[in-house]
Amino acid sequence: MDARFTDEQDEIRRTLRELLGKRCGPEELRAAVDTPAGHDPALWALLAGRLGLPALALPETYGGAGCTVTELALACEETGRALAPTPLPATAVLAAPLLLALGTGAQRAALLPRIASGELTAALAVPGPALATALALTGHDRRGRWAGGGRAGGVQARRAEGGWQLYGQADQVLDGHSAELLVVPAHTGGFARSRVLLFLVRGDATGLTRVRQTALDATRPQGRIQLRDVPAELLGCEDSDALPALARLGDTAAACLAAEAVGAAARVLERTVEYVGQREQFGRPVGSFQAVKHRLADAYVEVQAARSAAYYAAWAAATQAPAAAPTSAAATEATTAVTAPSSATAAATAPEEKAGALALAQALEALRRAAAEGIQLHGGIGFTWEHEAHLYFKRAAGDELLFGPVHRLRAHAADAAHVFEEAGT
User: Fold this and answer.
1) Are 381 and 374 in contact (CB under 8 A)?
2) With the CA atoms of 141, 58, 325 and 76 taken in that order, what torsion angle do they form, in degrees rounded to the nearest 10?
3) 312 and 360 share a domain?
4) How far is CA 238 from CA 174, 180, 269, in A?
5) 82, 86, 284, 315: least surrounded by Cβ within 10 Å?
């Protein structure tokens, strides 16, 4: 394994950091989150059109850049540094991989080029509190009870004349209020024979109601989706169960989210180091006190460890993704677009390792530590709404609510790797 970044990867990071530094400062950030969509459409047009962020991990066949999860994770790290509110996580990290893995040839040809160009945004309509379970990060529900389990609640699908109709509700969906395409997991077949399939719903579909919800972290806009006999299109074919596809997506998504959290942690730590070097107390900079140095040094070590874990998780996801077993003929076609790794590499990055979940746990913990130190060491100003330190703390708390908590991420990864079973034998 060569841990060095390529020139192309370094250029992605440099260009993106330079652009976000100019277009996503504190004032621009606050203005963006106050818009109805929760992000700046002009900034997203630049990120998608000029830099091609949503196209990074898509095959060239569908207008993508033909890169891997590693490049997408590096882009997420830079957007995380700026806390940039963009549709990138919802569209490129959560929705697009499902379209690529399960979609028919016609569906991929119609949707993926539009996503790659930034013309189309998408969202995975899993209720926020159930997202970590749906992605098999904090547990693995083989019956899909997080989606309603075939009983009242969640989203139900039934056949209608000429297609399918969906009925139900999903709350706290990332970008659910503004995405132009919804990927909706829904139960079909009744309670006794219930199974989860994925459906495509247009943002302007009849019977669809969407409302933006108040979220702890305003840079992660969320929406409530209500479906009342909404016409929907089945993603892929009926024999493609959505649960295994969502579980495979989990580790890839976790690697990108971990990189994003690392970017935010590194940035708030940098700002804190800069501030304590300027703020004086008892006639000397606060940063010159040994106790402050120790606290910042501990936070720095934690952030660097989280960065290493996130990079490894992205590399592991990039090398194992082509080797994942397809769930349908459509998925088989999608996997041929990428060169499969050697058997030794695939074995070394088996899904049981849960590298993404562990990296996400490490990154969320590092972000929480760095954000808390930032607020305290900024003194009184760090507690004010006018200062951006609290935005990083809210990102740490909000992400742990959506994708954690940390102890459950680690516990599930340990269970998947049979750590405690081996220790007890």
Assistant:
1) no
2) -40
3) yes
4) 26, 24, 49
5) 284
With contact defined as beta carbons under 8 Å apart, do 121 and 90 qualify? yes
Q: Which of 145, 208, 146, 133 has its CA nearest to residue 176?
A: 208
Q: What is the CATH number of the domain that holds 42?
A: 1.10.540.10
3-state SS track over 77-146: HHHHHCCCCCCHHHHHHHHHHHHHHHCCHHHHHHHHHHHHHCCCCEEECCCHHHHHHHCCCCCCCCCCHH
CB 87 within 8 A of CB 43: no
Closest CA to 235 of 142, 164, 148, 180: 164
Residues counted in the chain: 425
Per-residue pLDDT reduced to its tens digit, 231-265 = 999 999 888 778 999 999 999 999 999 999 999 99
Contact of 116 with 64, CB cutoff 8 Å: yes
Residue 34: per-residue pLDDT: 93
Query: Same domain for 300 and 380?
Result: yes
* 196 and 95 share one domain: no
User: CA 245: distance to chain centroid?
Assistant: 15
CA distance 386 to 374: 15
Query: Measured between alpha carbons, how far is 199 from 242 in angstroms, rounded to an integer?
Result: 10
Q: Give the phi and the psi of residue 229 in degrees, each rounded to 5.
A: 50, 50
Say what the pLDDT of residue 345 is.
Answer: 37
Same domain assignment for residues 12 and 110: yes
The CA distance from 394 to 219, in Å, is 9
Cα-to-chain-centroid distance, residue 220: 11
**Segments of the chain scoring below 70 in pLDDT:** 1-3, 147-153, 190-193, 321-353, 422-425
Domain span at 11: 7-120
Q: Report d(CA 407, CA 322) in Å as an integer.
A: 30
Q: Are residues 138 and 105 in the same domain?
A: no
Sign of the CA dihedral with 375 first, then 378, 379, and 384 last: negative
Nearest to 175 by CA among 41, 360, 78: 41
- CB atoms under 10 Å from CB of 402, counted, come to 20
